[in-house]
Structures are given as structure tokens and as C-alpha cells.
Design a protein that fits this description.
The complex is a heterodimer. By secondary structure, chain A is α+β, with helices and mostly antiparallel strands. Helix content of chain A is about 40%, strand content about 35%. In chain A, α3 packs antiparallel against α5 and α5 packs antiparallel against α6. Chain A is elongated and about 95 Å long. The longest helix of chain B is centred in the N-terminal third of the chain and has 29 residues. Chain B starts with a helix and ends in an 8-residue tail after the last helix. In chain B, about 50% of the residues are buried. Classes of the chains: A alpha+beta, B mainly alpha.
Chain lengths: ~350, ~260
């Protein structure tokens, strides 16, 4: 029993909580400098967060139990401040609990879709009712300087080929369907290559960046290294702007695995491979990358966030006034003390 | 035009810092008055640049590093002026004005040409959340700058218990604003990146900053932590604020990498 009491008093004390917070800060700071991608996934870090939650729950409960509700009638300002402090701690607990729910039950996947392509979402993640996403159109809008102004994916949500919803997804404007959100996350380009050879030995293929095509009946291979929307030799492999003002394709040709050469091709430009074969990059087909996410913890986290902000505002507004009062009282007390001593 | 105004701000802020310093050392009211006037003129010029930027771009000037720094220093000086007026204290003037001078110097040195041009917003920034998230952050940073000025003065003069009440109130205000800024940022991130918290360097360091001020607010009235330690915490907090801005923006890359 005694041990339990000790464990309880230690794990519920504010001192422990503050030490945990300090440790979390230290590990975050070092982690973000040394191993920014992984430090928050380590067992140690998650354990610390778990202990913090346990500590905060116990500490806050203890404060709720001893909370002086009579303050509401006697000293309203102090009540607002104290109550705000309780709320903000409760809010923090909910935020972390909600994040924990996401960690355990949440799902997040990236999908890429070309125009006219459809994807069965139930194959990528667990869903209540299966549905598919069909991409009508993906396009980028540009500013005058050629930078991107917005990325648009026009999609249809279908259930057994019946259209349930038609929506545009763009940055800052995700689609929400049955608690699964779809975000505009990224994009890319695929390039169609057509090879012509003797006796109709031609072929064609849609190539992703760094993907290659072996020319049938030969040891040669063409690799589509990169599509550059606005090519400028000064920028080398980087596009000068995102807008396709001067599109080029950088490719390389191999024979028996050995590099024969690297070239820059226009779209539709016929390139002779040898006496027999030639090829052309005929079209560029952009595809969209969407992030699909379901987060059953989000309602918990959101209510936590609201409580937290409400609590912080209450504690601040009332706190400043309480402090002023205290300060004024303090001065009065000092003055009284002084007058008495005189 | 903006560049001329910018040098004006730099010069007046620096003049303010020097005259506060000399005025406080010698105790001459005339020098202190010059410092105050110089500071007010600088603050007005600073405000004019923000308005010009607003007119030039047609949006609130909160989207780039230089705009943020201008806002941050503008709020800091306004808060300092209110503080000086309310407390009739000029002692921290030199430190606070030195801080904003350095901030202005970094605008001039690192990103002055940026201010004369119009850069379109990148898609992620096109959101109503931008203004509230950044405004609350700038306000919080300004409060932390002022608190750090007071704490630094205490540490230099070894009078650790001075302005305890003011520092605590100012840090509380800054802390509340930082908390709200982080939450608003998280709501926005959920909309745009599809994740309310990604352990992006900016987020991580904002959390570290938030934690040190949280520790201060829990501890500053305790016997072992009063005085020197509390002052050091407030100053450390501000160094973290600066690192969260400069270090993360210019040394580390992440989701928050904007010009």
C-alpha cells in the first residue's frame, strides 16, 4: 500500500510533469537537429508522452477534486483564471489522447491517379463502404511569373459505377467523403514514348521518371530521365519555372547496360536510334498525388484544441487582472505595514 | 521607396538604442527624450512600410520572412512604448531597441530586395488561416522580446527581482498567443497538409519554445527558481524564439520553408 501511495504521489505530482516536459523539449531539440525524421517515432519519446499524459490526467483530476467552486460566488476573476487553467490542461490531455487514437487506428496513404484512371479506395485502406475515386482532370494554374498558383484535381466518387459526388480537390481544400479526407499532396508527369522500327517492330509505352523501355529485338534501352516543363540550359536539370513554356525531356540511351549518350528532346521530335529504329516522346501526361486519411481521433483532438484555446484565453484575461489586483493589494498591504511601523 | 524607409527605420531604431543607453547611464532626461522620439519615428516608419507592402501586394504583409520580421519588430516597439508609458520606466529601452535594430539589420542584410518586389503566394499559403496564425505568432514573439529585454536588464544589473510582475504578465500574454498560434497553425496544417502535426522543424522548435515558457510559468514563483533562474529562463526562451525563426528558416529545411 505504501509503495502504491508513493507511486501515486510521484506520478501525479506537478514536479514530475515538469521534468517530463523538460525532457520532451530536450529530446525534441536534439532530435530535430540530429535525426529529424525519426526521433518522435522512438519508443523512448512515445513513452515520455505516455507518462506525461498519465501524469497530467492524475494531476488535473487532483486539481478538479480540490477545486474551490465557491470562488464562482466570492472571487469571480480568480474562478475564471483557475477554471481556465483546468480547461487548458484538460484540452491538452484530449489533444494527446486524440493523437494517440490516430496513431493506433488512423490511416494515411498516398495514391497517384492519371487522367481517366479510377482507384478502388478499399484496396488501399480499410473503409466502411467501398468506393472508388475517378480522376476527371488534373491541372496546374500558374501565376504571371510561371510559378504555381493552384493545383486542381477534379474527381468523382463512385460506388459500383454510380457517381456519388463530384468534387474539386486543391491545396487547402480537401475532399471529405465518409470521414475519409483526400488532400492535394503532389503531382508528377508520365511521358509516352513511341518507337518505330522495321517491319512494324514498333512499340509504345508510358514512362514514369527514371523508367526505361527496352527496344524489342535489340540490346538497346531508352531511359526517360526527367520531364522539364521550362528548359533553360543555365538551369541544367532544373526547370526554370513550373509553367511549360519550353518543355523538354532528358533521356539517356543504353546498349547492353552501357551508357551510349544523354540527350534533350522536344515533344514530338523524332530521334534516330540507329539505322533501323527511331523514337519520339509523343505526349506528356500529368498525374496527381492525393493523400487519403482517416482519423477517428480527430473529434477528440479538435475538442481538446477548443478547450485548450478557451482555457488559455480565460486564464490569460483573468490572470492579468488577478495579478493587478494582487499587486494593488500587495502595495496596500505594504503601505499599511509601513504606517503601522511608524 | 521601401528601401529608403527601411534604412530610416534601421537608423532611428539604432539611434533610439544608443540614446536610451547613454541617457540611462547619465540620467539626462533630454537624451532619454531624444531616444523616445527616435523610437516613435522609427515605429511610424516601420508601420508605413507594412502599409505600403499591404497596398503593393493586396494582402496582409505576413507571408514572407522579411514581412514577418517587420511585423515582429513593429509589435515589439509598440509594446515597449506602451510599457514605457505605463510603467514610466526607460531602463529597458536600450536592450529592446538593440533587439529590434538587429532584427532590422537582418531584414536589410538578408532580404531587402525581396521587399521591393511582389511575389505571388504559393498555393499552401492561400488560406484565411495565414493571417491569424502569423499575426498571433508575431504578437507572441514581440511579447517574448520585451520580456527578454526586461530579463536581460536584470541579469546585466544583477537585480534579479526587478519587474517580476511585468515580466510574468508579458510572458503570460506571449504564451497565450503562442499557444493559440500553434493551435491555429495545426488547424490550418490539417486543411492543407493533411496532418495537424508533422514534427516539421518549425513545429518542433515552436514546441520547445512553448515548453520553456510553460516551465517558467509553473516555476517562477517557487523559491528555488525565483530571481536569477527565472530571468535566465525568459532570456533562453527568447533565444529559442530567434532560433525557431532564423535557425529553422535558414539552416533547416521543412514544410515551413518560405522565402
Amino acid at each position: 500500500m505504501k509503495l502504491w501511495k508513493k507511486v501515486y504521489s510521484y506520478s501525479s505530482s506537478m514536479k514530475t510533469g515538469l521534468m517530463l516536459l523538460a525532457l520532451i523539449a530536450l529530446i525534441s531539440a536534439l532530435g530535430s537537429l540530429v535525426v529529424p525524421e525519426v526521433f518522435f517515432q522512438t519508443l523512448l519519446f512515445r513513452l515520455l508522452l505516455f507518462f506525461l499524459i498519465v501524469n497530467m490526467v492524475l494531476c488535473t483530476l487532483r486539481r478538479v477534486i480540490v477545486f474551490n467552486w465557491r470562488l464562482l460566488k466570492t472571487r469571480r476573476l480568480k474562478f475564471v483564471r483557475e477554471f481556465g487553467i483546468l480547461l487548458l490542461h484538460a484540452g491538452m490531455i484530449l489533444i494527446i489522447v486524440g493523437a494517440g487514437v490516430f496513431l493506433v487506428f488512423g490511416q494515411s496513404v498516398m495514391i497517384s491517379l492519371s487522367q481517366g484512371e479510377s482507384l478502388d479506395v478499399s484496396k488501399e485502406m480499410k473503409v466502411n463502404k467501398p468506393f472508388s475515386i475517378y480522376l476527371d482532370d488534373f491541372h496546374i494554374e500558374y501565376n504571371n511569373d510561371g510559378s504555381a498558383s493552384q493545383y486542381y484535381s477534379q474527381v468523382k466518387v463512385t460506388v459500383e459505377k454510380e457517381i456519388k459526388e463530384s468534387a474539386g480537390i486543391s491545396v487547402n481544400y480537401p475532399l471529405d467523403y465518409q470521414n475519409i479526407k483526400a488532400y492535394q499532396q503532389s503531382y508528377g508527369y508520365k511521358v509516352r514514348i513511341k518507337v518505330t522500327g522495321p517491319e512494324n517492330k514498333g512499340t509504345e509505352s508510358l514512362l514514369d521518371e527514371e523508367e526505361s523501355l527496352t527496344i524489342p529485338g535489340t540490346d538497346k534501352m531508352v531511359k526517360m530521365y526527367k520531364y522539364i516543363p521550362n528548359y533553360d540550359p543555365e538551369y541544367a536539370m532544373y526547370s526554370k519555372t513550373l509553367r511549360p513554356d519550353n518543355p523538354r525531356i532528358i533521356f539517356s540511351v543504353y546498349e547492353k547496360g552501357e551508357l551510349l549518350g544523354v540527350g534533350v528532346a522536344k515533344i514530338g521530335e523524332h530521334i534516330k536510334l540507329d539505322d533501323k529504329f527511331s523514337f519520339v516522346f509523343s505526349t506528356v501526361e500529368p498525374y496527381t498525388v492525393l493523400k487519403l486519411k482517416s482519423d477517428p481521433g480527430l473529434p477528440v483532438t479538435s475538442s481538446g484544441a477548443i478547450l485548450f484555446m478557451l482555457g488559455v484565453s480565460m486564464a490569460l484575461l483573468a490572470g492579468v487582472r488577478v495579478q493587478k489586483q494582487k499587486y494593488a493589494e500587495g502595495i496596500n498591504m505594504k503601505n499599511e505595514g509601513m504606517s503601522e511601523s511608524k | 521607396m521601401i528601401l529608403v524607409l527601411l534604412s530610416g527605420v534601421l537608423i532611428t531604431y539604432f539611434t533610439g538604442a544608443i540614446f536610451y543607453f547613454v541617457g540611462n547611464k547619465t540620467g539626462k532626461a533630454k537624451l532619454q527624450r531624444i531616444a523616445l522620439i527616435s523610437t516613435i519615428i522609427g515605429c511610424m516608419l516601420n508601420g508605413i512600410i507594412l502599409v505600403l507592402r499591404w497596398k503593393l501586394t493586396g494582402r496582409l504583409p505576413l507571408a514572407s520572412g522579411s514581412e514577418f520580421l517587420l511585423c515582429f519588430s513593429f509589435f515589439t516597439v509598440i509594446m515597449y512604448l506602451i510599457y514605457e508609458w505605463k510603467s514610466r520606466e526607460k531602463k529597458t529601452g536600450s536592450v529592446v531597441m538593440l533587439i529590434v535594430t538587429v532584427l532590422m539589420l537582418s531584414v536589410v542584410g538578408l532580404m531587402a530586395d525581396h521587399l521591393a518586389a511582389i511575389q505571388p503566394l504559393m498555393p499552401a499559403l492561400k488560406s484565411p488561416w495565414l493571417s491569424v496564425h502569423v499575426l498571433t505568432a508575431a504578437f507572441a514573439y514581440a511579447a517574448f522580446a520585451l520580456a527578454a529585454g526586461l530579463a536581460a536588464k536584470n541579469i546585466i544589473k544583477k537585480e534579479y527581482t526587478q519587474h517580476g510582475e511585468s515580466i510574468c504578465s508579458i510572458v503570460s500574454g506571449g504564451f497565450a498567443m503562442l499557444s493559440i498560434s500553434i493551435v491555429l497553425g495545426a488547424i490550418w496544417a490539417e486543411q492543407t497538409w493533411g496532418s495537424y502535426w508533422s514534427w516539421d522543424p518549425k513545429e518542433t522548435w515552436a514546441l520547445v519554445t512553448w515548453i520553456i515558457y510553460a516551465l517558467y510559468l509553473h516555476l517562477h514563483k517557487r523559491q528555488n527558481w525565483q530571481g536569477k533562474r527565472a530571468n535566465i529562463m525568459v532570456l533562453t526562451g527568447f533565444i529559442l524564439v530567434l532560433f525557431t525563426f532564423f535557425g529553422v528558416n535558414y539552416l533547416m529545411s521543412g514544410l515551413h520553408s518560405y522565402a
